Amino acid sequence: MAIHDPSASPAKAPPMAELDATVSAEPAQVSPPSRRAGWLRSGAAAPPARRQRSPWVRLLVALTSSTALLGTAALVAAAAIVPPIGARRTAREAAQQEVLSQLGPDERVVARAFASQRRWTDMWRESFGVVVATNRRLLYVGAPPTPLLRPREDGPTELLVESYPFDAAFTLEPRTLFRGYGRGLVLRTPAAQVDFVVDDASWTAALRVSQASAAARRSVTRDEEALSATTRAPAPPAALYVRYVVQRGETLTGLARRFRTSPDVLRQLNQLSTDEIKVGQRLRVPKVDVDTLP
């Protein structure tokens, strides 16, 4: 049993300084040192900082990438537009053979020239052929361009044949094409225009084709005019007109009815702007029989 000693002093609370010392003595949680701090403590050199590229370097890299893309696109376009090796010779040989098979009885070739076409339906790829002027018509035979996505199947080449008889309405003239960067023959019809591209080696032959076509068309026109003159009906006789003096009480409408015409005709014959006429005015009227006048 505990005996209380009244002479003993009561227990005192520890001072605040001792509490602070106790709290500070407790171990604190310290974050692990960074890698850079570890390098620095170990004495190793820190890794160099990443340098930023200058604007000129970034611009040069961008231009190089764009140039590579444009070059690739140009190569693809050239592969699509430029014909394969030997396509021109093969197409021209096939076209000349087809021309011989297209000739009719008593039809002969007057002039010919190698030419080509570029159509938007073929993505402006070039098709080679020949333009021929015969004694009856103008003929173009050409081979279509090689397909882009699949090779042409073995067998006879499918040729394009265009025929323009000389009695049809068309003209064939040498002209510059592609804003002066090329030249060729331009065929114009009332419905469309067809351009035939001609290279320098075939330009003289193309001029002969144009001249032969123009001469044949003139000959056909003369023959048609001569035939029309022999079968044409005679022209009706010209109408006869006389002078008439306007009497009191007469009107332009009444005179037109009397001379079996219309007021419009009388106004045109006499250059009248209105239907007003005066007594004694001389008018030009159609001549009619006196017995038939009302």
From TrEMBL:
Biased composition (Low complexity): 1-17
Tagged with keyword Transmembrane: yes
UniProt-listed CDD domains: LysM (cd00118)
InterPro entries named in the record: LysM (IPR018392), LysM_dom_sf (IPR036779)
Gene3D superfamilies according to UniProt: LysM domain
Keyword Membrane (UniProt): yes
Transmembrane segments: 59-82
Keywords: Membrane, Transmembrane, Transmembrane helix
This protein's name: LysM peptidoglycan-binding domain-containing protein
